[in-house]
Amino acid sequence: EELKTVVQRNVSDGVHADSLTLRGFLFLHRLFIQRGRHETTWTVLRKFGYNDNLQLSKDYLFPPIRIPPGCSTELNHAGYSFLTSLFEKYDNDKDSALSPQELIDLFSTCPVMPWGPDVLNSVHTNEKGWITLQGYLAQWTLWTLLDIQRTLEYFAYLGYCGSGDDNQLSAITVTREKRIDLQKKQTMRNVYQCHVIGPRDAGKTTFCQGLLSRTLEEVQDIAPDRLSRHTISTLQVYGQEKYLVLHDIDVHNITDALMPNEVQCDVACLVYDVSNPKSFEYVARIYLKYFSETSIPVLFVANKSDMSAVRQDYIHQPVSFCHKHKIPPPHTFSSAVQPKKDIYTKLATMAAY
């Protein structure tokens, strides 16, 4: 009787003719699970012949979501709160990082382990190479931006449930169209994509890893197959925490065309090697062909500035080229020492404003 009273108090049609309705029955078991009494629900399931094998319907795994052109997907407060509580649950030694075994345990309810070793070079890790809470939330942010269906699927496997009858969509925000943000000169987005483009050997990989405060020496110790094309971290933009995603885009030849999805971004970073006289021509041509007529902000990065700069074999030198096209002068960068955050903050600020 006490249970029926609880159901009646929370679900208007949970009890009928002194008996639990389906809605009442489901609410009751949700309550058991939320209060940690999982075995009560499993006992009922086994009583009716069910075993531990659970298959979730596609409707449940992939609730329909509409993402208009120019919009993006981000986690909201409910999503981050769920992920944080999950992290804290499996961080058994409370060291604010997940060991390989703790990570396996966290994803034990999923069909496969979704994160490979490259993830550890996409986000922040501790001195042991274990993913920290900051890195863990950043990786989920990256997933949600690039592959929302995968986030929805794994939220379902991990047991996300909002309030009431909410599904995984209550953890997601679909942002306003970028065009409207530009018109209004303000944005509520928290995640920005920066495409890092340049010739081979210009130092794009070390520049991207610099977002994670890694030096050239540290990057050289990473096996190529363990490097990711994406790195992501948080930065302060005018006092607000924002995520910056760097996407390393490698084009082997100056005549190779960029695909539309390789051009479209919130800010473009064109990287050249100051010690190579042929390097700037490549990025100058990329700018003229793909970005000069767009509203996408562009920053040229004069990489390897610890080396002797040489005159570039191009009609304009980098500074005069930027002046002519009314874009910021090249920003010098070197990963020979601890990379400075200012260049990444500048990119995030250009993307936001």
From TrEMBL:
Listed GO MF terms: calcium ion binding; GTP binding; GTPase activity
Membrane topology summary: Single-pass type IV membrane protein
Record Pfam families: EF_assoc_1, EF_assoc_2, Ras
Gene3D superfamilies (UniProt xref): EF-hand (1.10.238.10), P-loop containing nucleotide triphosphate hydrolases (3.40.50.300)
Domain Miro: 189-353
Superkingdom assignment: Eukaryota
Localization of this protein: Mitochondrion outer membrane
SUPFAM superfamilies: EF-hand (SSF47473), P-loop containing nucleoside triphosphate hydrolases (SSF52540)
The keyword Transmembrane helix belongs to this UniProt entry's keyword annotation: yes
Family label: Belongs to the mitochondrial Rho GTPase family.
Protein name: Mitochondrial Rho GTPase 2
Segments forming domain EF-hand: 78-113
Keyword terms of this UniProt record: Calcium, GTP-binding, Hydrolase, Membrane, Metal-binding, Mitochondrion, Mitochondrion outer membrane, Nucleotide-binding, Repeat, Transmembrane, Transmembrane helix
Cellular component GO terms held in the UniProt record: mitochondrial outer membrane
